[in-house]
């Protein structure tokens, strides 16, 4: 399948690498490809600049958000939460209509200090905001409750653990579940929470995730719902 | 030890029953004991009135919040979240000073429809509000992330799963951890998240917990942090 991955950060690179390794055609979307490739500094988390990664993954083209979205049969949003709606607006509604949109982003708000809070939160979610803004697109919120390396290699965490899907379209959730299985997720580990409103629940896992990372001292952990089956 | 359990609902009754079964002296606190005992209707969840439960558990005395708090060496808050600060105010700061206060309540807000949202949320938590209101009391937030039957009988959920503790006082968390072990929690299953600020994380687990209950159709499940050890 042809995938557009919006976002050039570590999550986007990790997802794009996995998709390409599975034989999919992958294009990464960014606001300004020239500017993205021209950056020579590590990002705020110490990850190398995009160009360094891209030199080793030249089969993955870098295009504008709109070009990438036009190319992709399925679109994956991996930007920072605060940038997601702008990226999708730049991608253009017409390029998203009728497609499955996998939303991995979290609405982390760094403006009130560390650890980040969430915005929106509680009575709304970023997943719902995206679905409302693009009503002709089939939004599936998933994978946002773990480190990106666990997303594409669940066996990094020993034992059974879970990934959640939230969305209005049953067929879209089925397609995304098949993708998750191809990533290495056992199908019983995929928990369908219901409609996109349930993204409030998974986005609100981030605060305890961040504090667990602090308490455990690493990010190779995940939520397992014991008693789910 | 002498325990005061504030709140006469299903959580308070379940905790009081467990504490009494372990040989502790237990008093339950309520606003107006006569009024509580006079109720003959089931509560909103269909649980029998308090008097029905009390007839089978007469060793547990029912007293005012203040009388109960004065009696208890350790105090447990099991009221609805919206009632917790009022109950503790009625319990009287002097009766709480220097004591360990176990906060099991969740700030569920039913005013915006179902499922409930949270208030406070995100940049504050009920656990922090209680600690700020009673600075001479050692607040430990715990057990608020599961059904009350799982709290006191963790083996209802097969396999390993976790309970979190949040609080400023290391000795208080140690005491509460020993209590949890006496409830049946294996000590490695108790995850110390850090200070009371981390109660934001565990209170914000409620939204996904509520949606999981809907998706699974039962409440005998719990969070297991896979990769924590």
From TrEMBL, chains A, B:
Keyword Ion transport in record: no
Name of a matching Pfam family: F420_oxidored
Gene Ontology molecular function: oxidoreductase activity
Keywords, in A-Z order: Oxidoreductase
Span of domain Pyrroline-5-carboxylate reductase catalytic N-terminal: 3-107
InterPro entries: NAD(P)-bd_dom_sf, P5C_Rdtase_cat_N, STEAP_metalloreductase
Keyword Flavoprotein: no
Name of the protein: NADP oxidoreductase
Taxonomic source organism: Streptomyces davaonensis (strain DSM 101723 / JCM 4913 / KCC S-0913 / 768)
């Amino acid at each position: 399948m042809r995938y557009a991955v919006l976002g050039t950060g570590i999550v986007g690179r990790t997802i794009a690498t996995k998709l390409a390794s599975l034989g999919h055609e992958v294009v990464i979307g960014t606001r300004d490809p020239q500017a993205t490739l021209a950056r020579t500094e590590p990002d705020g988390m110490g990850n190398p600049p995009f160009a360094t990664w891209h030199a080793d993954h030249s089969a993955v083209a870098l295009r504008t958000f709109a070009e990438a979205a036009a190319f992709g049969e399925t679109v994956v949003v991996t930007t920072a939460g605060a940038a997601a709606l702008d990226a999708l607006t730049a991608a253009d509604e017409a390029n998203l209509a009728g497609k499955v949109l996998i939303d991995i982003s979290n609405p982390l708000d760094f403006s009130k200090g560390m650890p980040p809070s969430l915005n929106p939160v509680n009575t709304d979610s970023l997943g719902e905001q995206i679905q409302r803004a693009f009503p002709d697109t089939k939004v599936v919120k998933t994978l946002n409750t773990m480190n990106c390396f666990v997303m594409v290699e669940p066996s990094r965490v020993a034992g059974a653990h879970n990934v959640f899907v939230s969305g209005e379209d049953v067929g879209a959730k089925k397609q995304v579940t098949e993708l998750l299985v191809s990533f290495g997720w056992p199908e019983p580990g995929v928990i369908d929470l219901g409609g996109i409103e349930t993204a409030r629940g998974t986005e609100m896992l981030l605060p305890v995730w961040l504090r667990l990372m602090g308490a455990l001292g690493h990010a190779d952990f995940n939520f397992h719902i014991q008693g789910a089956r």
